[in-house]
Amino acid sequence: MNIKVLEENYIVCRLDNEEVVPRWVNSKKFTSITRTEDELSIVCEDKNIPQEIKVERTWRILKIEGPLDFSLIGILSNISSILAEEKISIFAISTFDTDYILVKEEDLEKTINTLIANGHNIININN
């Protein structure tokens, strides 16, 4: 399986569920916006974020190269299990085409080494 490491640093933001999506989210890079009855959660590049926004910083993203067919089973489970054994916490996001795994910046090297040791191919490492 090919996994691409995205270059940028990302943040996870939490806003009130009734807020509109802010203009500072507008990006052509990876962005994920999820609204629930409890919150508006945004994952985006760590740029131009107002200081009053509640954020969790220093995330890096690993993209499972796709597109992945919906009938495929266990891809995210396999990767998350491998990383859990090494005590690496993840934040996973799935889209129509593929899965993304966020790890903290300080865990990136260990994550890459662990995935390689378990037969995954890491491409475009720019950290």
Automatic annotation (TrEMBL):
It comes from the Bacteria. Gene3D superfamilies: VC0802-like. Residues 55-115 form the CASTOR ACT domain. CDD domains: ACT_AK-like (cd04868). Pfam families: A9CJY8-like_N (PF21631), ACT_7 (PF13840). Residues 8-52 form the A9CJY8-like N-terminal domain. Coiled coil: none annotated. InterPro entries: A9CJY8-like_N (IPR049447), ACT-like_dom_sf (IPR045865), CASTOR_ACT_dom (IPR027795), CASTOR_mTORC1 (IPR051719), UCP008459 (IPR016540). This is ACT domain-containing protein. It comes from Clostridium cibarium.
